[in-house]
Amino acid sequence: MTKTSIAVGARRIDLSTPAVMGILNVTPDSFSDGGQLQTEKGSGVFRVSLDKALRHAEQMIAAGAQFIDVGGESTRPGAPEVSEQEELDRVLPVLEALQSEFDIAVSVDTSTPRVISAAIAAGAVLINDVRALSRPGAIAAISESDVAICLMHMRGQPKTMQRDVQYADVVNEVKSYLQERIAICENAGIARERLLVDPGFGFGKTPEHNFQLLAQLQAFQSLQLPILIGVSRKSMLGAATGRDVDQRLAAGIAATMVALMQGASIIRTHDVAATIDAINVYRAVLGAPITR
Which candidate among 64, 102, 122, 272 keeps its CA 20 to 30 Å from the CA of 253? Predict the structure, then answer.
C-alpha cells in the first residue's frame, strides 16, 4: 500500500487525495517553457524576472498546486550541464521570493550538492533529484536535514541519455534501481518517511519504454512510497499523438488519469488547473466527495 502522506520539513502533506506539483523552470532552455520567465528576451544574457516567476507561481497556487518545483538546470534530452554558480544564481532568488510571498511547499529540482545545501538553508522542503542523490556529496548535503527527497530514475546523463537506449525489462530494471537508491538513503540515516519515487518518464527511455512504465505503474506500489509522475508535455505524448509540445494538454491529462488509477500520489505538471480537474474526476469515479 502506497503511503498516504509525506513529511516535508515541518509540514506533512496529505496524499490521500493526489497532490499537484506546479513546474517553475528558471532556465533559458527547458524543453517546454524555457525562457518564459526571463527579464528581457533577445539580450543574449538569461536573467530571471522575479515578478514573472512570482505571478506564475501565484496562478498555479490559486489553481490548486500544493507544491511549486523550482528548477535551474535544464534536463531535457541533449541539455548541456550548468555551472554550480549559475544554478545557484537562478534558483536562490526565486526560492527566497516564494518563501516571503506564499505559504507553499517549495521543491527544488537539483542534483548539485551545493545547491541542495543552499536550497535547504533558504527554505526548500523537498529536493527533487533526477539523479537520485547519486552525485558525490549529495547524500551528505541532505542527510542532516528534515526535507523530503524524490528519487528519480535516469539512465545516463541529459546530454546523452537518449542515445542507444535499451532495457531487457524496463519496469523491473527501473524498480530495482529505485530499490537500491532507497536502501542507500536509509543506510545513510535518511528516514523512509522522507522519501518518494519517480520512474523518470523521458529520462533515458524510448516512447515504448515510457508507455510500458505507465501501463505498469502499479508495480511501483510495492516500494511502499509515494509515487510522483511527470509526463506534462513530454515527447512520449508527441510520439503517441503527433502533436507539438504546446498542443499536448489533452494527451497529458489522459496519461495522468492512467497514472492516478494506478496509484500515483503527486502529479508534476505545467498545467495545474486541468490536472486538478482530472484529479476531481478520478475522485468522483472512486465515489469520493466532490469539493470545489
Answer: 102
